[in-house]
Every structure is written in C-alpha cells, then in structure tokens.
Automatic annotation (TrEMBL):
<keyword id="KW-0874">Quinone</keyword>
<keyword id="KW-0411">Iron-sulfur</keyword>
<dbReference type="GO" id="GO:0008137">
    <property type="term" value="F:NADH dehydrogenase (ubiquinone) activity"/>
</dbReference>
<keyword id="KW-0813">Transport</keyword>
<keyword id="KW-0004">4Fe-4S</keyword>
<dbReference type="GO" id="GO:0051539">
    <property type="term" value="F:4 iron, 4 sulfur cluster binding"/>
</dbReference>
<keyword id="KW-1278">Translocase</keyword>
<dbReference type="GO" id="GO:0048038">
    <property type="term" value="F:quinone binding"/>
</dbReference>
<dbReference type="GO" id="GO:0009060">
    <property type="term" value="P:aerobic respiration"/>
</dbReference>
<keyword id="KW-0520">NAD</keyword>
<feature type="binding site">
    <location>
        <position position="59"/>
    </location>
    <ligand>
        <name>[4Fe-4S] cluster</name>
    </ligand>
</feature>
<protein>
    <recommendedName>
        <fullName>NADH-quinone oxidoreductase subunit B</fullName>
        <ecNumber>7.1.1.-</ecNumber>
    </recommendedName>
</protein>
<dbReference type="GO" id="GO:0045271">
    <property type="term" value="C:respiratory chain complex I"/>
</dbReference>
<dbReference type="InterPro" id="IPR006137">
    <property type="entry name" value="NADH_UbQ_OxRdtase-like_20kDa"/>
</dbReference>
<keyword id="KW-0472">Membrane</keyword>
<comment type="function">
    <text>NDH-1 shuttles electrons from NADH, via FMN and iron-sulfur (Fe-S) centers, to quinones in the respiratory chain. The immediate electron acceptor for the enzyme in this species is believed to be a menaquinone. Couples the redox reaction to proton translocation (for every two electrons transferred, four hydrogen ions are translocated across the cytoplasmic membrane), and thus conserves the redox energy in a proton gradient.</text>
</comment>
<dbReference type="GO" id="GO:0005506">
    <property type="term" value="F:iron ion binding"/>
</dbReference>
Length: 206
C-alpha cells in the first residue's frame, strides 16, 4: 500500500474524517506559493527518509524488530535503517517499560539526536507504565521526552507500529518550518480547546 492509498483509507475511518488539526492548519493563511512549496518538499523528503535509533527496552522491542523483517518490511516506507548512533537518527521508538534507572540514558540518547527529531511511545508500558504501577517504572515516557505518537497495546503488533509510523509520516509532511508555524500552533490549540470533551463523544453510539 502506497501513501496515497493509505491517506484515502484513513478518510473512510469516522474518527479521521473531521481532523481538527488539519482544519486549523488550513485556516491559517500560508506565507506564499514559493515558501509553501519549499515546506511541502522538505516535509516530503523528511517523511520518506526517517532513521530510527537502535534502542530496545523490553518486550515491545521484539515486535519492533519484527516490523523490520521481510514479512512486514517497513523499509518500503523509507524506515529501513536503524542507526546505532543517535547522532545519525531522527526518530526514537521507546519500545517497552522505562525504569527510573534507565530514564537518564533514554534522555541522553534523545538529547544526542539532531533536530528535527520525533518520538513514538510504543506499548502501554512506555505510554503509561502499563501494569507496572510501582516505584521502579516511569509512568509514561512523556515524563522524560516529548512524545509525538502514542501506540497502545501490550505488546502492539508490527502492523500497529507501521500504522503509527505512517501517522507520524503524515504529521511530518504537514509540519511548518517557517514563521507561520506559531500561528498554526495557536490555531490548533484553540481548536483543541473548543472541541467536545471526550466524555461527550458518543460516536456511532449516539
């Protein structure tokens, strides 16, 4: 499945039809044709050449390795190379539980990565501590590093990781790099505050 087919499939999902972030981004006037084209070209190049850093913390790392095998073949999306050095990588996949002993090392790896960089929190343990609600485990890696994509599951399948990677690709493709990014951030925040609370979202049950 190529990216165009993936985006069309995403539009068939009810939760993806009304994208508040995309609507807020489109409500902001762009800086002009030339700069907008440069942004699109830059986002397309970055989204198709992401290099994850080699870092496995727990059982989710086995599923992350599985995503790179021929059966799932995430290299078809440009994510082929896992770099052993964080200075050569731009994506961190936090795969598994993060202990307080490991937290400074995870942060050190993140700080060693060059900008721009992104983080995927893979699995329930990385996202919220999972079943390890105790003093030894950090209750969510967003206490250590900023997270762009949360991937649920215990452990999530390689297909779920590939879907999270494609969602991150969509975000990077739309990422503004010039001065109007602040206006877009304000518009997205205003749209999020104006949205209906999760407790009132009944979806198809209404």
């Amino acid at each position: 499945m190529n990216m165009r087919d993936y985006n069309e499939k995403m539009l068939t999902i009810p939760s993806k039809r009304d994208d508040l972030q995309l609507a807020a981004e489109q409500s902001v006037d762009g800086p002009g044709f030339l700069i907008t084209s440069v942004e699109q070209l830059s986002g397309l190049a970055q989204a198709r050449s992401l290099w994850p850093v080699t870092m496995g913390l727990a059982c989710c790392a086995i599923e992350m390795m599985g995503a790179g095998t021929p059966r799932f073949d995430m290299s078809r999306f440009g994510w082929e190379i896992f770099r052993a050095s964080p200075r050569h990588a731009d994506v961190m996949i936090v795969s598994g539980r993060v202990s307080h002993k490991m937290a400074p090392i995870v942060r050190n790896v993140y700080d060693s990565m060059p900008e721009p960089k992104w983080v995927i929190s893979m699995g329930a343990c990385a996202s919220s501590g999972g079943v390890f609600n105790n003093y030894a485990i950090v209750q969510g890696c967003d206490h250590i590093v900023p997270v762009d994509i949360y991937l649920p599951g215990c452990p999530p399948r390689p297909e779920m990781l590939i879907n999270a990677m494609l969602e991150l690709t969509r975000q990077i493709e739309r990422r503004p790099i010039f001065s109007h990014r602040e206006e877009i951030a304000r518009a997205v925040e205003a749209a999020a505050l104006a949205a209906a609370p999760v407790s009132e979202m009944k979806g198809q049950l209404a």
